[in-house]
Amino acid sequence: MIDWISNLPNFSAYGTPVYFFYLLLAILPLGISLYFGKRFSWYEALISFIFIFLMFDGSSWQQGISLIAYVIYQTIIVMAYHRYRQNNNSSGVFYFTAALSILPIVIVKLSPAMVGHNSLLGFLGISYLTFRAVGTVIETRDGMIKEISPWKFIRFILFMPTITSGPIDRYRRFEKDYKKVPTREEYLNLVNTGIFYLFLGFLYKFVIGYFFGQHFYPFFEKAALADPSFPSWNLVGVMYTYGLYLFFDFAGYSLFAVAISYFMGVRTPMNFKQPFKSKNLKEFWNRWHISLSFWFRDYIFMRFVFLATKKRWFKNRNALSSTAYMLNMLLMGFWHGITWYYILYGFLQGLGLVVNDWWLRFKRKNLKQLPHNKFTTGVAIFVTFNFVMFTFLIFSGFLDTYLFK
Question: What is the pTM of this model?
Fold first, then answer.
């Protein structure tokens, strides 16, 4: 059986035009049913199972087994905590449950640094599924989820369009959206918007992202490694080409996920909103990888601020917010991986948010006469863009090779 599965063709999500052909063909009956005001949940479950199977068969069959075990594990945790929460609300039990939910991703992230190889528990998309599972536990603690079943949770956590690369949805929003079948007019609007996002995703990932990732970035990478001077213009080229590749590739994936979700009658939230137009770093994180940044904002930053205020850990609210920024972004850095460049990336993003807040307070108090016009807006966008590009250079890991190997 395993030999048969390991020899099957593997289709990575949104990787080739062939994948889109089969996927769109498969969801066509679902679209027809939605057009007539019906949601065929059984058919949606069937095609979701088939396409998830195709993502994790072939050489990825071990990841598929890990995915199955992971979903069973998280379902048991969520259902057990939901049952407990009906009549109890101990903080200790909540923290223990959240820790159990986070445990698999912690093992996966720590394994390369601790034992020198990747954990067998890992699979493509485990980070995004963890955010959904932990978010469900938190929403249950907050009393926001009154009803949940194993099937509804599995349907949410394994929602096929977003399983590997997000966006990160939340159970309550997803379930409310899923239960409400769109009217014919609403569905046609979703399809029209989905088609636009689909073609925009093609432009981003397969045209612009392709040129940056396969031509421009490798050219500057090779030139920078061959250039003994530091810093060099080739290194600057690496910085910009990697940052732009990262955006167009990732934003393209997210657009595909949103488009397919719309075709399936689910309004998955957008993940990017023109982030490079941001005038400061806080605005950038309201536009970049929105589902991730808002998850950290709501479940890490805000909860730390609330707890610290309640416990009176800080006398100065600016010190409190600065500490919360640093904690929030450092945790995000650690989430990406236990390497110096991911951790430094998180540290610099946190420091940037602290400086950004300081500058806004200073400007409001001492520079009221500073004009707000196109020039100052352009300067703000320029500074923000270049700071972000510099942190993306660190995030890329290229400097690890460039400086130390």
Answer: 0.92
